[in-house]
# Entry
Amino acid sequence: MPAITAVRSTQTRSLSSTPTLRQGARGPAVSQLQSKLKAKGFNVSVDGDFGPKTAAAVRAFQQSRGLSVDGVVGPNTWAKLNAASAPPPSSGATPTLRQGARGAAVSNLQNRLRAHGYNVSVDGDFGPRTAAAVRSFQRAKGLGVDGVVGPNTWARLNGTPGAAPPPATGGARVNGYINGRAVPITVSSVGNGKFLRTDAANAFNRMRADAARAGINLSVVSGFRTMAEQQYLYNLYLQGRGNLAARPGYSNHQSGISADISVPGGYGSSTYRWLQNNARRYGFVNDVAGEPWHWTYRS
Ligand SMILES: [Zn+2]
# Structure
């Protein structure tokens, strides 16, 4: 029966093309997964082999889309992979821009300026402050200082920042990001020159004091991150030179609720075991598979 055959073969094709995949899988479905990750801006080879780098890209993708971060490609992850692609954060149109311009290309410009450490708002409005940042950037790069963003300035803006941006500083109100939107938050110190959103910092400091009494040293190596810091880490990650980092604007580090805690020895360490047994009482959970150091305040 031709009609039945046609239906059956369509179903078979659509089922077999998106099977649940995890690290260790091989074959055409893995190649398809890798092609889709690449199309979304993730740096993976299309070799049909689901190795650690593909797994890291899957986790980054899941984190960026608000999915549960388990590195396993099931129906929800496939659905998001097959959804129309948002432009990657550092690409997009690069028309010549000057003060008074508005729109997505200006937002892209402002994101790039932030990635290079300039403190401008990403509001799509090329005002005097953005113009001042452009002139300062041009001066720093030896370009003609005219405040107009043409091909040469774009080329330098889209290059990798040469040095890490200055770390976040604490105190009053800072620009946090939640799901890509800027949200003012207040951060407080958690020691070691790092900061968390004040409620998370208070909980962390209580936890740290109790851990110290148990002989466990909780040291934060990365807490709240500015947009420039996240962009920098994300660029390193995309180039295969850094740890998994979420798309800028989408990291819980940017909302000030995630802390990377030094756990020498990883999952087997006494620090990790103490956290596993106690952190939940202070509101912290270890919520990224494969990262024993990453703890998020969920209260
Ligand atoms: Zn982290």
